[in-house]
Amino acid sequence: MAVAALALTACGSDKVDSGKADVSSELCGKNLAFLGALTTDPGALGQNMVGGIELALKEFNDKHPKCQVGLKKFDSQGSGDNAPKLADEIVSDDSIFGLVGPGFSGESLATGKTFFKAGLPSISPSATNVTITQQGWTTWHRVIGNDDAQGKADAAYLTGTAGASKVFVVDDGQDYGKGLAGTVQEALGDALAGAGRIAVGQTDMSDIVVKVKSLHADAVFFGGFYPEAGTLVKALRAGGFKGTFMSGDGSEDPNFVKAAGAEAAEGAVLSAPAGPPPDGFGASGLYATQAYDATTIFLAALEDGASTPDEINSFIGSYTGEGVSGPLAVGPDGDITQSTIYAYFVKNGELDVANPQAIS
Fold it and tell me: What is the C-alpha to C-alpha distance for residues 101 and 86, in angstroms, rounded to an integer?
């Protein structure tokens, strides 16, 4: 197995180091690509990822002045409709030897076949839909736990730690949101009180509020992103709901509090298959560490002498190491073999991103 030395230092330096003063590779002077949201509401998450990628590249390029690797960024705005055209641009660019991304599940499902046919290796830092790795796309990998692991942990938290006996589950109808919510529903068993769906951009949540109250639900789980999560919990609190509100990593962002208002957001629980970065890490925000680790794997492949897509793909599939986001090993289906799910909490009007609780 390919083993990379990933020494965790306070400033994030020396994490990519094969012991070589420089690297001689056909890939020197070429680029990695990032595909994901850089603008619109999900853009903050994509910017976090880019921060992690750029940190890893800077460290590598500083160590290897004769072998520079660049980054080309493609803004999908988080849309599965926009992503296929960008995927075509990526695979037609001979300077790109690997993809960090796609950032979201919908765009992963919309583009995976294109990247697979082109043979372009990819590592997603954040796409969690379970079905992506069931498509047979052997070039697609991720370094984050999937919705199956997260959804089961969320359901266990709600019925265990939160003590809920009647949980109402809502999703936004997108691949990520309905995938995560679906796992939660199944894992809740008899504790599932009911389920509903809202649309992206929806502002009137009165139907959901009525259903939650009529079923006497003592907890609500939402699968989707922070704009709708904030709007939903604000409406629930205004309607008198006093139970636990929980959502997943699509909502684990300080902007959730802004969307909901500090009073309505107080006490909300937001889970994520990602812990906070180590002290002194040079990038911030959810998925920054996973993006850093994904980039590190590509760079380790280059250092190891891989120069073709098949060689890089083989390297990824046999890689094991300790990354800043946790243990790194990708199984034969492209899923990471070990992950921890964390719960983050809104306290005193702010999302506490530094002190999550491990719930799996």
Answer: 12
Token digits of residue 220: 């609500």
Give span(s): CATH 3.40.50.2300, the chain.
2-146+275-329, 147-272+341-358
Per-residue pLDDT tens digits for 88-144: 999 999 999 999 999 999 999 999 999 999 999 999 999 999 999 999 999 999 999
CB 36 within 8 A of CB 78: yes
| CA gap 277, 52 in Å, rounded | 10
Tokens of 350: 């702010």
Say how far apart CA 342 and CA 150 lie, in whole Å. Answer: 9
Q: Tokens representing 15?
A: 């994490």
- Does an H or E element contain 73, and which? strand 70-75
CATH node for 147-272+341-358: 3.40.50.2300
SS3 34: strand
Q: Which two tokens stand for residue 84?
A: 């296929």
Contact 90, 33 (CB under 8 A): yes
Alpha-carbon radius of gyration of the chain: 20
Question: Which superfamily does 2-146+275-329 belong to?
Answer: Response regulator (3.40.50.2300)
